[in-house]
Design goal:
The complex is a heterodimer of chains A (about 475) and B (about 230). Chain A is built from 22 helices and ten strands. Chain A has helices at about 10-15, 20-40, 45-60, 65-75, 90-100, 115-120, 120-125, 135-145, 160-170, 180-200, 225-230, 250-265, 300, 320, 325-330, 340-350, 370, 380-395, 395-410, 410-425, 445, 460-475, and strands spanning about 80-85, 105-110, 130-135, 200-205, 210, 215-220, 235-240, 245, 270-275, 290-295. The chains are: A alpha/beta (about 475), B alpha/beta (about 230).
């Protein structure tokens, strides 16, 4: 993953100045969050269902190696082929091999976060295979030559005016002047894409779940683009992270409904499509060749660690929509494929903590993400653990300081002496109310944006001693 | 066996001890959406409420003759002259082929060789494996003479359904498959649970219908003989 995650602070500051972005996020993210909350409120036993969904994901993870083998056996038995990829390069090469084997030149693709993570489209295009994004939001992003800013709603950062201008400029759509109609723009995109579905010779999809007992790859869309992008083309390649496996169809029934509610507040997405294998004789459509690529790309290194639970994520985007940080800075500021709270956990884990040091700190730890998560992932705890890891790994000075602090805390006399010295010294730097405007040395980072509170005249220790003595005096009188 | 496969699986096996405990599989799953009144009328009424809420259309007809009339009138309203269909044996409405021909509507069953004609069709006509009342969904699957395009490609999709095919919730449909040891699922190359017309809200959360799939989803339900 090419990353700018280490420039979060800079990117976030820029995002906060961007009035267009603010208007788009105020509308889109907050509305998405409100819709989810409304749909949850209308559900009886919502917490039990959340635990049922969580159980399904955790059972999937607990039996992951066996379920992956079962998946492979099922798909192979139906004439599909399963390929395994340890990293992005291996996954991309598998796709390119398939393209070369079947002489494929042009593919239609539905929305898939794992293919974003692999940078599959630029890879294929470098090798002379043209790819077209068919999800409306992803299509806009492709025309704009930018990046999705949300894992469910890729153009959450855009207003309709920006999309209108883009279509007029790059695709020759007739300008609508002041009366911009999303309906007309969507119809324009449909017409533009329709012909290309017929010209494409393969379709690429991701996978929301794999149901191990039948080896079924499940994909949900609202537009129908994944289904159409695998109905007309002779080859279908599904690219799925290894963590997406769930044991049974009952688990699927729970999770597919959970995903829809949390992502968009729907009871079910419009097309919950289930792929078992290549088309059978006389179906009249569907792919003759069916490949499933199972992608590791850093997942097995998370598996079994204290961050395992992050692998249970179903990519609904609820934690993004509800997060006060995401709501203000948007997805691009995170400089990562997976933005928002869950992204701040998995980006450092998938790409190396040193490549995303600011992300675990890009959170107020308010806990809204955990509350919103449909499978109850403890995101705040994992963010804290990542902060701890980062400090351990990266800053010997900080570690030394913390050790000194903890030592002085456990030695009252030393603590008291230090406090008195600080209080006395602080007089020299303090403002009218005793507050400190500027701390010396590395402590200055604190006072860059705020004052340090004044030291009290009387410490708790002194107060306690005084009160205790007074109390003892009173008790003696009675 | 590939080296990648062996390496991934062995990494997972070595690391699994650190995983959080998974709760056991529930003996009974709690359905996500339920239906209070599971009588045939109750199911139909809920199905209608849900699907109409998504801007789909539901028409109840008394018998097959009325279903033929309704289908023809829906096609007349949209002005469709060409319809993609499943093989007649998979659509629960005998006489549909003749009725379409008499009305001057050309019926076409998709094959890999007639794609251009398919592209021009204004309507698709299919049956369904089942319908889910709680979510207003239709389950379709593929088999010989039962492809994807009739349910997907044209802007109008007419589904012919018998009232007996209505189930309360998605979990009930899964239970039926389980009772057959999933053989029904396993023998299909593709299934789809369709819940409303194709839609997007990508542009500022504005709802727009008919993005890549049909914007018009019309279900003609033949009433259950009582």
């Amino acid at each position: 993953m090419e990353l700018e995650a280490n420039r979060f602070a800079e990117a976030a500051s820029r995002a906060l100045q961007d009035k267009q972005l603010k208007a788009a996020l105020d509308h889109n993210a907050r509305l998405a969050d409100a819709t989810r909350i409304k749909s949850m409120a209308a559900t009886t036993g919502a917490e039990e269902l959340r635990q049922q969904g969580r159980g399904a994901r955790l059972r999937g993870l607990a039996q992951l190696p066996e379920l992956l083998e079962q998946t492979e056996a099922q798909i192979t038995a139906r004439g599909g082929q399963v390929l395994w990829a340890r990293d992005a390069d291996e996954a991309n090469r598998h796709v390119l091999d398939i393209c070369q084997r079947h002489e494929l030149r042009f593919g239609v693709k539905s929305k898939s976060m794992v293919t974003e993570e692999l940078h599959l489209v630029p890879f294929l295009e470098r090798h002379g295979v043209r790819m077209l994004e068919t999800d409306l939001g992803e299509f806009v992003v492709q025309v704009d030559e930018s990046r999705p800013s949300h894992i469910v709603a890729p153009i959450m950062h855009m207003k309709k005016e920006g999309i209108h201008d883009l279509f007029v400029e790059k695709l020759g759509m007739d300008s609508m002047d002041d009366d911009i109609d999303p309906q007309v723009m969507t119809r324009f995109a449909r017409e533009h894409l329709r012909r290309q579905y017929f010209e494409a010779d393969f379709g690429i999809t991701g996978g929301n779940f794999i149901i191990a007992e039948t080896g079924t790859v499940a994909i949900t869309t609202n537009e129908g683009n994944a289904r159409l992008g695998t109905a007309l083309q002779p080859v279908h390649v599904a690219i799925v992270g290894i963590e997406k496996v769930i044991p049974t169809w009952e688990d699927y029934a729970t999770l597919v409904q959970t995903l829809a509610r949390s992502a968009t507040g729907q009871q079910l997405s419009v097309y919950s499509t289930l792929y078992n294998g290549p088309a059978l004789a006389e179906e009249g459509d569907g792919p003759q060749h069916y490949y499933v690529i199972l992608v590791d790309n850093g997942r097995s290194a998370i598996y079994g660690t204290q961050y395992s639970e992050a692998l249970a994520c179903i990519r609904c985007g609820a934690c993004l929509n509800t997060c006060p940080v995401y709501q203000n800075v948007g997805g691009h500021a995170y400089g990562a494929v997976y933005p928002g709270p869950i992204g701040s956990v998995i980006t450092p884990l998938l790409t190396g903590k040193e490549n995303a040091t600011p992300l675990p700190f890009a959170s107020s730890l308010c806990g809204a993400c955990k509350t919103a998560c449909p499978v109850d992932i403890n995101i705040p705890d994992m963010l804290l653990a990542l902060r701890h890891d980062l400090q351990q790994e990266q800053s010997p000075l900080w570690r030394l300081g913390m050790q000194a602090w903890s030592w002085s805390f456990s030695h009252p006399l030393l603590y008291e002496t230090g406090r008195k010295a600080s209080a006395a010294l602080s007089g020299a730097f303090s403002g009218e109310r005793g507050e400190l405007r500027k701390l010396p040395g590395p402590l200055g980072a604190w006072t860059e944006h705020r004052d340090f509170p004044p030291f009290p005249q009387e410490s708790f220790h002194d107060w306690w001693r005084r009160e205790r003595d007074a109390q003892a005096g009173q008790d003696g009188d009675s | 066996m590939s080296e990648a496969r062996e390496q991934i699986l062995s990494r997972l096996r070595q690391a699994r001890e650190g995983l959080p405990d998974a709760p056991p599989r529930p003996a009974q799953y709690q359905p996500v959406m339920t239906v209070e009144d599971e009588s045939p009328q109750g199911l139909l009424s809920r199905f209608r409420t849900e699907l109409e809420g998504l801007q789909g259309e539901v028409y109840l007809v008394g018998d097959e003759e009325a279903a033929l009339d309704k289908t023809l009138s829906l096609l007349a309203e949209s002005g469709a002259r060409h319809a993609l269909t499943w093989d007649w044996s998979h659509i629960p409405l005998p006489g549909l082929d003749r009725a379409l021909a008499n009305a001057g509507i050309e019926a076409l069953q998709p094959t890999p060789d007639n794609r251009e004609a398919c592209e021009a069709a204004e309507a698709g006509i299919s049956g369904a494996d089942a319908a889910i009342a709680a979510t207003g969904s239709l389950v379709v699957s593929t088999a010989a003479g039962m492809g994807r395009l009739a349910t997907l490609l044209p802007p109008q999709h007419i589904v012919l359904l018998r009232q007996e095919q209505l189930l309360p919730c998605l979990e009930d449909w899964v239970a039926l498959q389980r009772a057959e040891e999933l053989t029904g699922l396993g023998s299909r190359s593709n299934l789809c649970i369709i819940t409303g017309p194709s839609r997007t809200a990508d542009i500022e959360k504005n709802l727009v219908l008919g993005v890549h799939g049909p914007g018009l989803l019309q279900v003609v339900v033949v009433e259950q003989a009582s």
